[in-house]
């Protein structure tokens, strides 16, 4: 049997009511789950897993802590033994818990935060932009290599058009931010990997360093020279992809992003100097 304290914790709703079917179930007390989905043990198991995961995120269940017995969970949740066992099996497969025979089930690791929490709202400070560039290095270097290997004629044509728009940006609109983003997005598309495309779209134009920190090029004595240098790097990336040189494409992308990181570090130093 659970203590009154633990029973109170497990019967707490997780948050304010929501209005989609899945989220509505999630916001109700545990004892209401079977009433909402009486003949769907898999759905009940999914909901039960998410509730345990949320309590781990909230700190109600700590790493190394022993979970209640199956009977206690059944009583607290108002579900069958089959649902409880299915939920425990899923949590074991996800690496969240481990079962020690004859001892019990224990919290093994914390679940990942819900959702992909990288995007425009999280890219605010110069340090955020630098961290993002390191993240991009791990993704876009490989993306460039895959693009060199997999790009279709149409993908190469779109990439070339994006490069031309990037080169003409200062003359046509005075800004190269969107054209820069489109160039990198077209590389992700040319790679043929939909997850890369989704990540790039999620980041949007905020992935381009100068959208947040103009000091990256206001510290340059000549903005045109600065942009010309960046465009040389973009041209080298395109040339390697277009000529199907996988290693060269990776190297060109690495050089470009690493140079961007170095430029931003210099901007960070200038910013710190002038703010003193």
Can you describe this structure?
- The chain has helices at 4-10, 21-27, 33-36, 41-58, 70-77, 81-93, 126-150, 153-172, 177-191, 194-203, 215-218, 223-242, 246-275; strands at 97-100, 104-107.
- 28% of the residues are buried.
- Strand 1 (97-100) and strand 2 form a beta hairpin.
- The protein folds into 2 domains: 38-107, Orthogonal Bundle (Arc Repressor Mutant, subunit A); 126-274, Four Helix Bundle (Hemerythrin (Met), subunit A) (Up-down Bundle).
- The model is unreliable at 9-39 and 215-220 (pLDDT under 50).
- It is mainly alpha-helical and 276 residues long.
- The chain is built from 13 helices and 2 strands.
- Helices cover 66% and strands 3% of the residues.
- Strands 1-2 form a two-stranded antiparallel sheet.
- Helix 8 packs antiparallel against helix 12.
Task: Sum this structure up briefly.
InterPro entries: GntR_C (IPR011711), TF_FadR/GntR_C (IPR008920), Tscrpt_reg_HTH_GntR (IPR000524), WH-like_DNA-bd_sf (IPR036388), WH_DNA-bd_sf (IPR036390). By secondary structure, the protein is an all-alpha fold.
Topology:
Blueprint: H1 4-10, H2 21-27, H3 33-36, H4 41-58, H5 70-77, H6 81-93, E1 97-100, E2 104-107, H7 126-150, H8 153-172, H9 177-191, H10 194-203, H11 215-218, H12 223-242, H13 246-275
Helix pairs in contact: 4-6, 7-9, 7-12, 7-13, 8-9, 8-12, 9-10, 12-13
Mean pLDDT, to the nearest integer, reads: 77
- Provide the domain count: 2
For the biggest sheet, the summary is: 2 strands, antiparallel
Quickly give the structural class.
Answer: mainly alpha
Q: What is the share of helical residues? A: 55-70%
Topology order in helix (H) and strand (E) letters: HHHHHHEEHHHHHHH
CATH domain topology of the largest domain: Four Helix Bundle (Hemerythrin (Met), subunit A)
CA radius of gyration: 26 Å
Regions with little confidence, pLDDT below 50 for 5+ residues: 9-39, 215-220
Oligomer: single chain
The tally of strands reads 2
Instruction: Give the strand content.
Output: under 5%
The dominant shape is elongated
Determine the CATH superfamily of the largest domain: GntR ligand-binding domain-like
Number of helices: 13
Keywords: DNA-binding, Transcription, Transcription regulation
Protein name: HTH gntR-type domain-containing protein
Pfam families: FCD (PF07729), GntR (PF00392)
InterPro entries: GntR_C, TF_FadR/GntR_C, Tscrpt_reg_HTH_GntR, WH-like_DNA-bd_sf, WH_DNA-bd_sf
């Amino acid at each position: 049997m659970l203590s009154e304290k633990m029973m109170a914790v497990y019967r707490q709703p997780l948050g304010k009511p929501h209005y989609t079917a899945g989220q509505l179930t999630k916001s109700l007390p545990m004892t209401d789950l079977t009433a909402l989905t009486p003949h769907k043990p898999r759905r009940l198991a999914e909901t039960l897993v998410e509730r345990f995961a949320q309590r781990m995120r909230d700190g109600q269940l700590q790493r190394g802590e022993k979970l209640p017995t199956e009977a206690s969970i059944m009583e607290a949740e108002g579900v069958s033994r089959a649902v409880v066992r299915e939920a425990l099996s899923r949590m074991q497969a996800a690496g969240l818990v481990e079962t020690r025979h004859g001892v019990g089930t224990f919290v093994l690791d914390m679940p990942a935060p819900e959702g992909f929490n990288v995007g425009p709202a999280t890219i605010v400070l110069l340090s955020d932009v630098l961290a993002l560039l390191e993240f991009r290095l791990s993704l876009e270097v490989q993306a460039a290599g895959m693009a060199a290997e997999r790009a279709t004629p149409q993908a190469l044509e779109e990439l070339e058009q994006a490069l031309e728009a990037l080169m003409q940006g200062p003359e046509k609109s005075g800004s190269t931010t969107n054209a820069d983003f489109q160039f990198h997005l077209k590389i992700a598309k040319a790679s043929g990997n939909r997850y890369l495309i989704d990540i790039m779209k999620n980041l949007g134009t905020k992935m381009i360093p100068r959208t947040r920190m103009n000091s990256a090029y206001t510290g340059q004595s000549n903005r045109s020279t600065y942009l010309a240098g960046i465009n040389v790097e973009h041209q080298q990336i395109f040339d390697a992809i277009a000529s199907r040189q996988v290693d060269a494409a990776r190297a060109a992308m690495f050089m470009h992003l690493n140079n961007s990181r170095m430029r931003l570090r210099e901007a960070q130093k200038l910013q710190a100097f002038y703010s003193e």
